[in-house]
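Exercise 7. Predict the joint structure of the components listed below.
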Amino acid sequence: MSKGARAGLVLVAFAAAIGLILFGIFGYLRTSPPVVSAVPAATQPNTVNVTMQVDGAVGVGPHPTWVGYWIQGANGQYKQTTLFTVPVNTYVHVKLYEYDSGGALRNPYWGKEIGTVGNAITVNGQSVSLVNSYAGNGVAHNFDVPGLGVNVALPGVNGEAKNFCEVGPCNPSEAHNLIEFTFYSGKTVHNYRWQCFIPCGLGYLNGNGGPMQSIGYMAGFVEVVK
Amino acid sequence: MALKTEDSGSPAAIARKHGSRIVAIWFILSLITDLVVWFVWGPHMPPGTMTTSAAGQQFDFKVLTVMSVPVLYMVWVYGAYVIVKFRDRGDHEDGYYMKGNRKTQALWYAVTAVLVLTLAGFGTYELVIPAGAGVGEGPSPIWKPADTTHMLQVQVIAQQWRFTYRWPQFGGMETTSLVLPVNTEIQFNVTSLDVIHDFWAYQLGVKADANPEVNNVAYTKTQQTGRFVVRCDELCGIWHGAMYNYGKVVSQSAFYQWATSMETQNAPLTKLLPKYSSVYVPNDNVAGGQYFNG
Amino acid sequence: MASNVDERPVIDEEAYYHDASLGATWTASRTAVAMVATLYGGLAFAFFYLQSLNSNGQWNPNHMTASTIIGTTIMVLIVAAAFVNYFGARRLRRGLVVDWQVAGAFAALFVIVAGGLQIWELTRLPFQPSSFGYASVFVAFGPVNALAILLTGYGLETEVMKSVKIKKKAIADGGLGLSSLPIAEQFRANLDGISFFLNSFAVITVVFYVIFYVVA
Amino acid sequence: MAIDMSQSTGVGQSGGAGGSTAVRWFARGNIVSATILGAGGWFFGHWWGNVIAGHYASVQNSGTNDVSWLLGAIFATVAWFIGLGALNHPIAKLWGGEAPMPEKKDKYSLWEYFSYSTDHKVVGIQYLFAMLLYFFVGGLLALGIRTELLSPTYHIWGPDTYIEIVGEHGTMMMMMMTSVIMGPFGNFLIPLMIGSKRMAFPRLEAVSFWFTVPAFFFLLSALWQGGFQSGWTGYAPLSIQGGVGQDAYLFSFSLMAMSMLAASTNMVATIINFRAPGMRWSRLSILTWGMITTAFTMILSVPVLIDGLYVMGMDRAAQTSMLYGQHGGSPFLWENLFWFFGHPEVYLLALPGFAMTTEILPVFARKPIFAFKTSVAGMIGVATLSFFVWQHHLFASGMNPDMRPLFMLSTELISIPTGFLYLVGMGTVWRGRLRFNVPMLFMLAVFFNFLWGGITGVYNSDVPVDALVHGSFFVMAHFHFTIMGQLMFAVFGAIYYYTPLLFGIKLSEKLGKIHFWTMFVFFNSTFLPLFIVGWLGQPRRVFEYAARLQTLNQWVSISAYGLGLSLAFFVVTFIWQLVVTRPKSEPNPWDSRGLEWQVGIPVPKDNFERIPVILSSPYEYGNPNAGPMADLTPSISSVGSDV
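Solution:
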């Protein structure tokens, strides 16, 4: 092979290697679920509404059997994600349709509603400030944002219910708890992580694998923006 | 082989000539640096002196640094001297033929052995006397503080991915915040509900792995008020990097005020908690925890 | 270098590398024993460590073991294989090749049967893998042991087949047991290696028999 | 037994029958046939695993099936080796036969390097390129980590992806780099250095290389299977909790363990038995000493790693419960098994680096190795002590607090034999005539870098200070200085030093110096600040950190890019010179006395025309009475006195 041909070959090989690296980064490692932005209405500054649902099985994507959240976007469409942004210095009204059955917390402490306005939430219209996960339908999930000091225990629905939602996305005709609460987004711009404390990663040791450790299922970010 | 004229003489004389220069430079640099390390830098070294164990760690770090400086300089000064002095002068000659030197080797073995044994002895003393130096000593600690009567018991419960704290002397309440009284012996009982975490209260100089079903005890004594950070220091999954919170060391009266008010405030919650115990074994066969098929 | 093709007598390279490879066989068999002993040592550590911790009292609450009858049979078969092979190899050194071939074949058979039994034992355990500590360690030990036994059996079997294949070549020189032909010496070095491994493995087997069926 | 004990000479048996060359290649076994069969094996094992375990509740709930993943991987690996033809010999032995061993050639086509070859020189070169590939992939992942750490709050990667990258980087480096010297240089050079025409077990040698390829791909595959959340240390129960990426971790690490065992068995048997006449232990090159010490350490520590990984695999797939508590296990079991291997393992990385440094230093100092016996004793001492220090990784774990003074002592004792490296190095350059060629610069840098690593090692071993720095970036900086600063600098120095021998090409001094100085400066600029970062309280493997540490972290990240560019510069210039410009080298460009340099370039197919007779040590520089190291065309008489 001539020197020129060898040089060409080497250059092609380098280009291919760089292409492969870029594909790995942008085609795979940098992918992330969609982000839903909550924007205040003109009439109500400093308040935004966020509507979410949490399903026992998201029903779509690479892990359809995993539990996970759906968040309503601006056009009313639910997106399967756990990423949303809220403005700074704002009260965030969360309307959460909870379709999953509940169970016992590993640490019953997380049955306490903390950091929401009034340190309470409303479940189907009734005010609740502490959920005993060992009684009734237990706790289905937590919406816990450590950075904002928020912990919301979401009471579960009866898993034996006739219209129990097996596969997401669920709709309000199926058994659910409508949970409403408000939290304050704080004065600083920051990307706050949030998680769940119910061992809902079925089939994983301690229930804390799989969806519990995956963005887009039971782990996410509330980004507080300007 | 052919030596340059200035290097003629017996090997011992040459060694003395170069050696004395190296030793002189080394000694002066080491001395100056060590004084700076001890008096200027030392008092500001992390992690500060908020507790006895933090102060102990600072002291140890300072001592080790003072001992390391001469070792660093020995290699650097020697290396620089050799690179300048003993380089190939373009004639492609070989070096001085020598396969060893019994005296030098014996001296080296002796010095390193003495240094290492001293350090091991020093480390052991610094570990045993300050009640384990703030490190987790497992369920049955062997090095304890002298006075255990007024000790504050704090249970650290690590779970994926937050720390909570239980206070057996305050009705077994559980909190997410960590507030400590100043000038108090504290016993941390560190445990986990799931995987291995590590309770690292940086300014307190306390570090103990949180193992599931194991009580890992660490002691310290607070001596200054202030804020400190608690971080998880053992990889525990997705939120390991975000598993931290802040705590405060406050005056004793402020602490009691905080603790008693928390106790009343949390009373309904405390009733739901399992009885206080050194370890907790959550049932894996309920809720979503099932892992076993059998 | 290349110009140096005069007729000077040089080192007998074939003999040199023949000796070296005999040595390499010796070394490799010792290395293999070291590796297998360390591998089993790790499992023994797991056994004794979990036994001493006895977390939640779940080491072996009901003092169950895997089938002692099968376990004993496995142990006896391996020890028997080691003995049969040992005496067979001694007779080989006296020139009685067929004696060793029969002994080696039986030893291989014993070992392979023992491996089969070890697998069979795993299919009829009185506990689930997750039942308790001992159960877990045994479930982990079983496949390793079966694999090691079967590989030992493989070594013996290949050695027997080798002897069948090359026997004729050494007949004129006193047979495989006595011949000084390189091929025979290599064969005997291999046999030594395999015998050493088998004997060591028999010791390991006895130790692990004690661990899993007596200590437990 | 798994060990291939036959010594086939393969005389008169040329590999493969007639037919077209394509068919012959395929019959010989190569990367293509192996990949095709391996893929088939994967699908078969995966399918079978689904049949076995598909109905398990845990599998249906989690949607991931560890049984089918592991079975797929096992079948893929076996099929891979069938495709390579590596199993022809063991199968032929079942009826007393032998598979033919292809004859060595003077010159190989490029394709031979993608085939299953039993020529130690081919294996050495295969290893060299493979190890460089693994190293650079690991390095790119490191840049991924540093990119995330540019900001304490803004996230480039998701936190789950970040942990995947961290674990992948750590495992790639810690497991693959165990062979970065033994693989390329050990395999290529050891027969040359001991005066042998061959290795003891060429097939084991070839197999040891071909284990690393599936190990690499399985490990990398974890990235698109959710990764493993538990980092390279794989602490249970987190590792039991993870998804199938964790299976990739344990399986590929096991394959690499097999590779190490195969390579070290071959190494030990070769060095002990295949030395040329007159090659006394005192005349053995220091690299050979390093290889045999490393090999023995591998033989006694790697099986414990296999135990640990196997236990993890059983816990994950067969639902045993050895590594978590409720059913009678304990996470401490993994910590012990892992670190009982894990601490010798860091010396498996460091020892070859020491050996390579000491090997190259005297050539450029133009002096014998100072206190040769001490340097050998140092390596053996480090290797021996490394088995008695593993709990120093567990000072904060809460296990065996009463043993801490003992482990503190044993750990600090290691600095005595480690210090021998400095005694030897410093003695060797004393009154030398130092030639500052590129390899020498790398060797001197080893001493500079390792000093930081060694001294901070004493900090880590002191329990009260360890209470501060354990699990922090301080420890991370420490082992990057000992491994990257020591081992990888030695490797790059060795590449510059040995390319004339390996390829007949002498790399440009000028480009080499640019590479060296940028790498040296950026390496130190990357890792020195990390000591401070850790000391100021930043734990390892975090994606968020204190805002006050941002400046330091940004400094480090930018330096890391510089380091990356420097290494990219190496890759480009190395490949360019190797493939395009090809600057020819003279036979012994460094005036080395070493036996490996006396055989000429390129190395003849049998290394030596005749078995050489060794007359003196390879390091007699400056000795006016020293004859050549060996008689390469000996007659019987010159042997007599010495054997």
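Discussion. Chain A is about 10% helix and 30% strand.
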